[in-house]
């Protein structure tokens, strides 16, 4: 028996709120990635880890806010809590691998392709692992072509966002990149949901697990509190807000701004030159 699937039970409320969460996480994460390119190597892992957690929390929150509007008319839906929160860990871990590659190797060439691919696969893995934690009186089936399209969207969006973060062109540039990333994450989510069909078992067994309402509180309190704290950290960092667009490309290594190269804090000492002796310039001996 085919189940009647509705992905917009609350109208446009859940898609819009989910999109804003994806944009918020993307904005914080991309700005942290940009900031990591302006500091010494000792500080860089901290900023990259903060950016990974922000992006992972943002896309995870977007997914489950959108899932609040998902329902199957013939059966109640429950969620397995360990699998649900394991999807958050997978998102942060795989996004972190991609961001660390770009943060240390630069947002170009092979590093950008590798980092964007891993980050996109992390977004897709979070989505489908979160769907695996959904329990109902039926079986979930996916259209292979549509699933592949959702993964391509995730990889392309992640690659474009990491490229934008590596350009270091100021605050507005990162805001635009985060809006695009939020749109792509939402598009990937609903493309993946379009691939879903539910085949009911025909029995009335009550499924185990937690209801969406019981997951709502930790979903909002935990990741949103973290995103708020990450925003506070960046708000009090002037380089994160102002940014610069005129760094000199004197140093070819990624992540080292030119002002750190030009101003070293001390001037080189110069030795006085010795003038060569010229014939006839000596004082005559008496």
UniProtKB/TrEMBL annotation:
Coiled-coil intervals: none
Q: Does the keyword Membrane apply?
A: yes
Where do the segments described as Disordered lie? 251-286
List where the protein spans the membrane: 12-34, 46-71, 83-104, 111-130, 142-164, 171-195, 215-236
Looking up PROSITE patterns in the UniProt record yields: MHYT
What range(s) does the MHYT domain occupy? 10-199
One GO cellular component term, please give it. Answer: membrane
**Sorted alphabetically, which Pfam families does this protein's record hold?**
MHYT
- Which keywords belong to this entry? Membrane, Transmembrane, Transmembrane helix
Q: Which domain of life is it from?
A: Bacteria
Q: Which InterPro entries match?
A: MHYT_dom (IPR005330)
Compositionally biased intervals (Basic residues): 260-276
- Record-linked PANTHER family: DOMAIN SIGNALLING PROTEIN, PUTATIVE (AFU_ORTHOLOGUE AFUA_5G11310)-RELATED
- The name this protein carries in UniProt is Membrane protein
Q: Tell me the organism.
A: Streptomyces flaveus
């Amino acid at each position: 028996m085919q189940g009647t699937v509705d992905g917009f039970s609350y109208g446009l409320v859940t898609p819009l709120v989910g999109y804003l969460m994806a944009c918020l996480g993307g904005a914080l994460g991309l700005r942290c990635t940009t900031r990591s390119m302006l500091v010494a190597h000792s500080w860089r892992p901290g900023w990259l880890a903060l950016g990974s957690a922000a992006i992972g929390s943002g896309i995870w929150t977007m997914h489950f806010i959108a899932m609040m509007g998902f329902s199957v008319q013939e059966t109640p839906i429950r969620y397995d809590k360990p699998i649900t929160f394991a999807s958050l860990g997978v998102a942060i871990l795989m996004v972190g691998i991609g961001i660390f590659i770009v943060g240390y190797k630069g947002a170009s060439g092979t590093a950008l392709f590798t980092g964007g691919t891993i980050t996109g696969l992390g977004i897709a893995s979070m989505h489908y692992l979160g769907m695996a934690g959904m329990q109902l009186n039926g079986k979930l089936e996916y259209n292979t072509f549509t699933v592949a399209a959702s993964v391509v969207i995730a990889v392309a969006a992640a690659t474009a966002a990491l490229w934008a973060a590596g350009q270091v062109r100021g605050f507005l540039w990162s805001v635009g990149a985060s809006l695009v990333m939020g749109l792509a994450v939402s598009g990937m989510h609903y493309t993946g949901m379009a691939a879903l069909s539910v085949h009911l078992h025909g029995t009335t067994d009550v499924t185990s697990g937690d209801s969406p309402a019981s997951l709502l509180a930790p979903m909002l309190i935990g990741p949103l509190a973290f995103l708020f704290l990450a925003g506070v950290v960046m708000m009090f960092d002037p380089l994160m807000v102002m940014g610069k667009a005129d760094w000199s490309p004197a140093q070819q290594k990624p992540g080292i701004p030119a002002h750190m190269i030009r101003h070293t804090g001390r001037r080189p000492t110069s030795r006085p030159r010795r003038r060569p002796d010229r014939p006839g310039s000596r004082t005559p001996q008496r």
